Each structure stands twice: as structure tokens, then as C-alpha cells.
Amino acid sequence: MQKLSEADLVINPDGSIYHLNILPEDVADTVITVGDPDRISEITKHFDRIELKKGKREFITHTGYIGTKRITVISTGIGTDNIDIVFNELDALVNVDFKTREVKEQLTSLDIIRVGTSGAVQSDLPMGTILASTFGLGLDALMHYYEHSVPDAEKGLFEHVRTHFKDLHAVNPYLTSADPVLLDTIGKGMEHGITVTAPGFYAPQGRQVRAKNAVPNFIQKLNTFSYENYRITNLEMETAGIYALAKVLGHKALSVNAILASRVNFQFSKDPNAVVDKAIKLVLERITASK
Ligand SMILES: O=P(O)(O)O[C@H]1O[C@H](CO)[C@@H](O)[C@H]1O
Ligand SMILES: O=c1cc[nH]c(=O)[nH]1
After folding, report:
1. DSSP state, 227?
2. Ligand nearest to the backbone CA of 43
3. How many C-beta atoms lie closer than 10 Å to residue 134's C-beta?
4. What is the pLDDT of residues 127-159, one digit of tens each?
5. Is the CB of 237 under 6 A from ligand 1?
6. Model-level pTM greater than 0.95?
7. 235 pocket-lining for ligand 2 (C-beta < 6 Å)
């Protein structure tokens, strides 16, 4: 088996992976990712026991237990460029032997659940909604650097997406689905819909403050998309990269969105922490119930 070079897989002198700064044994089979590092303790305060707290830059990790269920919580920071780092490093931690630098024969598939914040683009999805993403629709560029493919069952939807966005010259969309088992268990009873992952918070999500927005009526462009019973429901900055890289690497992923903004009603939540807390409690309840 081919050894991964020191430049491809960067291991720190203490045996931890380059950015996440954690060791292979620090990762549980169930991982929760969040964008905001401060959200980690809002999750692990519900744990019965915290086994470790480590980190570097925006990548903070806590691993601990609820009952006998071991869970790792990691912050990714903002954007799919950070998802590239977190997912490749998480995968290396469980699927590469750090002593030999070879890929293990027996691969581990992690359950990875994002608990993130998001803005809704449909008028029937008010602030406070908790939504599980059926698909991630990437308007960023991450997955154009990786080999990946669209399954036959998703080709019709993908073609429709490409046609819908073909007049936006900055955009070459990619589309990936949630893990169906996680969607049915963790995402059960939540709102469902296609989540658009944008490469920014302002103009790439149709916002205008002082810099002029080059794409007119962006929110309308999203909420008028329709194919069979699919619609675009919300906007954020990581889900598509998470779904696509998880698939490429053989992991299962679900993104759960706490809706903080109603983009069609021009509103932003006055109590974002309460909405995020609702999403955290739901996800933790379901993770511990589904073990
Ligand atoms: O709250 P998090 O998980 O960071 O998610 C959303 O919030 C950030 C923008 O404010 C982006 O990361 C977006 O995806
Ligand atoms: O509108 C929103 C709200 C939270 N996070 C986003 O990326 N967009």
C-alpha cells in the first residue's frame, strides 16, 4: 500500500493532525459539527462527562458522553474551505494509520451531523424553524477540485438545477443528498428542503449593504426553483461541501438548520440562541434515542 507523504498528510510532532490538533483516539463514531466555536459548549453542557477539550485556530473539539453514547463535537468555522480541512482531517484520523501513513484496510464510516444557522427563502418557513437538508446545493467551488458523481436517481434534479442557474456566470452548481438513514432518524418530523450553500454571507446570499450586488433578485431566483416536489428552502455556507465530501470519503452526513432569518420578510431573529438551543436539544435527543 502507498505511504502518504509528509506533505500530503501533515502530522504534528505530538502525533495529532495538522489543523484539528487531535489524535486518532480522540474521535467518536458520532460527530456533531458547528460553525461557531462558542456553540460547542452549548452542546457539551448537556453531556454527562467530557473526556477531552482540544483545539487550534477556529477548530475546537470536545469529546464526551451522554450515557454510554460517545460523541465528538467540532467547530468548522465559516465556509466550505474550512469543511475541506475538517472533513479530510477527520477522515484521516479514522481511516489512515498514522504510524505507517497507509490507508487502513478496514475503513470507518462516521455519522456526522451539522447543527448550523441559516436563512429561509420561503415565506412559509418562519424564523425559529428547524430544518433538515434533503440536499446541499453548492454554489461554491469546493467540489470542482474533487472527483465526484451524481447518482442516476438525482440526475433529473441536477439537470434542472443546472438549467435554473445557467444565467449566473459566477456559478457552477453541484448537488449532493443527505444520508437517508440520518434524514429519517435525526431529521424526522423537521421541515425538509434543499439547502443552498453560498460562498459568502452578503452578495453571495443576495444581501446588499454598501457594495453593489451584481446578481439582481437572488432570493427570488432561489425560491422560484421548482422540480417535481423539490424546492429550495434555505441558505447557509457549509452543507453542500459537508454532504459531498462525506460521500466521497464514505461517511454519513445530515445538516440540521436553525432558521434565524426570513429573507423574504426581511427579518432576523431577536433571540438566535433560543432557536439554536432548540436545534441542539432535538439533535441530541435523537442521537441518543437512535443508538
Ligand atoms: O452558524 P454556523 O454553523 O456558522 O452557520 C451559518 O452561519 C455562518 C454565517 O453567519 C455560516 O457559517 C453559515 O453557514
Ligand atoms: O441568513 C443567514 C443566517 C445564518 N447564516 C447564514 O449563512 N445566512
Report:
1. B
2. 1
3. 20
4. 999 999 999 999 999 999 999 999 999 999 999
5. yes
6. yes
7. yes
